[in-house]
Amino acid sequence: MPEDEKRESLLKRFGKSSKELLYGMAGHDMTRFALKTRGSMEHLFILITMGDLLGIPILPPYYSLRLLPYVVPQISTWKRRMLRERDLTDALA
Amino acid sequence: MSTTLCGTSSLAETFRAHPNRRYIEFGGKGGLGKTTFSAATAYWLAQQGQKVLVFSVDPQASLSDIFERDIFGKGPVEITHNLFAQEIDADRHIKDYQEEIRKKILDMYGLEKVPDEIEDYIQAAAAEPAMEESAIFDAVVDIVVGRDYDYYIYDLVPLGHALYYLSMASIYDEWIEKITKLREEMQEYSQVAAIMERKKESEEDQILAELQDIRQRINVSSGILTDREKTAFFFVVTPEEMIILDTQKAAGLFAKYQVPICGYIVNRVVPPQLAQQNIPEYLRNRIAMQERYLKKIDETFGAGVLARVPEFERDITGMEMIAKVADSLFGGGA
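YS: structure for the whole thing
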């Protein structure tokens, strides 16, 4: 019995590793792309709703305030990204 | 100007013929008597056994003056049986709202104090010129979705503001629609990432939920203002040339925003019987001029003119005078 169990767990591990390998080869880049796009959109979204934080006047501030609590953690990275200087290496990232 | 009239010949008849029109609005230039008519209509409806709320969206509201009671920022105050009045205190509404946002931030992230940068933004946003109007708009949504009363009477701000108020609803709606779309697209990307990483569910987007809630509130409020089945809008005019011209212009604009214009009420009519008495030349001339403009009003607005209310011997404050105006508005075929 222990022999079987050992074989099974070996198989499982092999299965798991190959799954991860496949994900690494094919899926990971896509996931990264999806997340990166989402991140960019998140920043665009904050720009549209909270642009006033950078001095860009944005329409109805009343309802922007209602969204503010949800974007508090992203505000500082967003500001850094928006106000950062760009150069050629940005294209490679 | 027969665009959207209600097809009745007196104000009382209009109310009886359309019992589903529960949102009543009076509009017109400043100082013509919108507040007076709002109060008088509320008084009349309350006398008919209806539970009525008359409320003002004007930052310089005068319901307190006409009812001779300080009701500013006190919520709905019962004036007489079935008659409630409310003046919205926009400043306090904004302060409460800011506090609510701060508290939410502290609760969500377990913070002791709102970060400086965020606090600055909250304060700066409250100083925006559009903030007060937006706050009032939002407070009105709370009032009209409450369904606590049979009738809601809007004592609207002067024309320019009223148009701004109406257009704001459509601007908000468009703005929210755009950012909701963006948010939904973002949600799709999250879902793709979640599927690729074989996570069960991507977390629910709370911002999207907020946006949908905001949108729903705006739609309810602007929907009521432009709903022919539920709403009646009355213009207040006086027999003066400029007022007639401005009202014509405004009626055109209001029609563009789908406001269901129900009729016109002429205020400040100097009793023509006076002409038979021994009166000074000055007053005689005023009455002759008025006659000319009353004719013009009838030509311009035709069957839309639902009542003529005289210039009273004293200004309209207190229940006794309000009752007199109500009598003249609704009683005995004016």
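YS: worth flagging: Chain A touches chain B through 35 residues (CB under 8 Å).
IM: good catch. Also The helical segments of chain A are 2-50, 61-71, 75-83.
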